[in-house]
Structure formats: C-alpha cells, structure tokens
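Quick one, probably user error.
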C-alpha cells in the first residue's frame, strides 16, 4: 500500500495482521497492523522487498513485482524475481537541479539494467543463503531461528 507519507507492506500469510510501515520522510521502519493502513492508500501486489538504495534524488525502495517458480528444495518453493519496481521515497523532484535530475536518471537506468540481468532468486520458507552441507552441520538452535535472524 502506498500513501504520500508511507509505504505499507502487508504480509500475505493466513491470519497475519502485521504490516511493515516505512516512513517516506524519516525512512523509519516500524511494525503496525492492517487497520492502520489508510483506506486511501494505493494498493498493489508485490512478492518481496529487494532493498533500498540512495541515489541523487534520495532513497528508493526496490520491490519484486513479478516472479517465476523455478523449483523446490525439500518442498520449499524457490522463486526467480523477474520484474521490479523502483519506488521513490520523495514525492517530487523539484529540489533537484537539471544536472542532478540527469545524473539521477542515469543511475536509475543503470539500476534497471542490473535488475534486468538474470540471477535474483528467493524463497520465503527456505534459507538460500547457506549451502545444504552447511545447514546439515548447524545446531538445532540455528535451525529454529527465523530466516531473518540467521
């Protein structure tokens, strides 16, 4: 969900009420609930957040807008990110000079080129950041940690 003040990322899990709120001015990230999302927010589906990047015009949020299932590991779906959106935290570019606007446009073009190259894979339930061999040799405590904690 997008409002002029915040980005809201809603979990799609059944029964999940948590919403990640990203302030577009302070860049503060907080956890809130679905009822806090304004009804006026523009809503569209995404499949994940790739990250943020700071360019000349300010900070941008990079989200995955399309995905393709490429396989499974032990019943866990593995996805290939096939399309992205780069969302500006800033509502306007009026604060930039013509040279800064041109530089920002070049950097966005470079970023779009990098994102168009194959090789961005993810899983929402399986740890792709460690090899199967390493995962087999980890402690039970490590196995019980969430993917974020790992």
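Nope, works fine. Designed sequence:
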């Amino acid at each position: 969900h997008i409002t002029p003040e915040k980005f809201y990322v809603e979990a799609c899990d059944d029964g999940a009420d948590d919403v990640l709120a990203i302030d577009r001015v302070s860049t503060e990230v907080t956890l809130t609930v679905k009822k806090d999302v304004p009804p006026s927010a523009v809503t569209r589906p995404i499949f994940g957040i790739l990250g943020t990047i700071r360019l000349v015009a300010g900070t941008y949020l990079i989200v995955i807008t399309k995905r393709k299932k490429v396989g499974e590991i032990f019943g866990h779906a593995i996805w290939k990110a096939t399309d992205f959106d780069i969302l500006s935290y800033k509502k306007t570019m009026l604060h930039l000079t013509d040279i800064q606007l041109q530089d920002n446009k070049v950097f966005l073009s470079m970023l779009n080129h990098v994102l168009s190259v194959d090789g961005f894979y993810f899983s929402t339930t399986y740890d792709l950041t460690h090899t199967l061999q390493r995962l087999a040799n980890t402690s039970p405590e490590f196995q019980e940690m969430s993917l974020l904690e790992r």
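Strands lie at 6-10, 18-23, 29-33, 48-55, 58-73, 76-88, 121-122.
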